[in-house]
């Protein structure tokens, strides 16, 4: 188990109790995402955490696979699902690499607050493209800290080295869009919430 997974396992209970930082922006993201969802769709969300977003979207689609590398996060998500079951929703401990065999299987993939926590966002985006059907939708919400808090890079590196925080990749919005286009996505929607300018919310579709 790598250090980031260990961090999220240790933090899972605290994370589950933490209130949403910007409820208004979160609700808008849910509403915009749902414009792209259809009852016939098979959806996958990676880095699902404790499952809050999956529980909202799952009733609107045919099937919804929500994954996270942290077993403790998935334990909490499954307990939440028991309190309010959603037909077609499954929570699994898995990484994107574990799903490589499911080529062009999904109509939509969500990666929320996760790309900046991975060492190679560009290769992750290529994996997502391979898992999507042609015309499939990718919804992402990413902290683009190179644009807003680049000065924190050495602090973040030290904190990760000391096992105090997970790994953080310092991306810019321009780099994120470049990686999406290079992989074969067309960007359909962009939004930087006024109250949380670190975050870049994007919706893109698979073009090839």
UniProtKB/TrEMBL annotation:
InterPro entries: SAM-dependent_MTases_sf (IPR029063)
A molecular function GO annotation: methyltransferase activity
UniProt-listed Pfam families: Methyltransf_23
EC number in record: 2.1.1.-
Domain of life according to the entry: Bacteria
Residue ranges of coiled coil: none
Keywords: Methyltransferase, Transferase
EC supergroup of this enzyme: transferase
Name the record gives this protein: Class I SAM-dependent methyltransferase
Organism: Marinobacter albus
């Amino acid at each position: 188990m790598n250090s980031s997974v260990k961090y999220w396992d240790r933090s899972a209970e605290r994370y589950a109790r933490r209130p949403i930082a910007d409820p208004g922006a979160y609700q808008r993201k849910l509403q915009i995402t749902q414009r792209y969802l259809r009852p016939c769709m098979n959806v996958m969300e990676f880095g699902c955490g404790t499952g809050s977003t999956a529980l909202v979207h799952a009733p609107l689609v045919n099937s919804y696979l929500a994954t996270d590398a942290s077993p403790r996060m998935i334990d909490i998500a499954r307990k939440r699902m028991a309190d309010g079951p959603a037909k077609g929703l499954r929570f699994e401990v898995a990484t994107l690499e574990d799903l490589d065999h499911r080529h062009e299987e999904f109509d939509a993939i969500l990666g929320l607050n996760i790309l900046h926590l991975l060492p190679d966002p560009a290769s992750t985006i290529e994996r997502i493209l391979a898992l999507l059907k042609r015309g499939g939708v990718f919804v992402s919400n990413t902290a683009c800290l190179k644009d807003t808090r680049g000065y924190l890079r050495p602090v973040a590196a030290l904190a990760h080295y000391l096992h105090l925080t997970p790994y953080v990749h310092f991306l810019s919005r321009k780099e994120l869009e470049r990686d999406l286009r290079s992989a074969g996505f067309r960007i359909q929607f962009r939004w930087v919430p006024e109250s949380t300018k670190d975050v870049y919310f994007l919706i893109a579709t698979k073009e090839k």
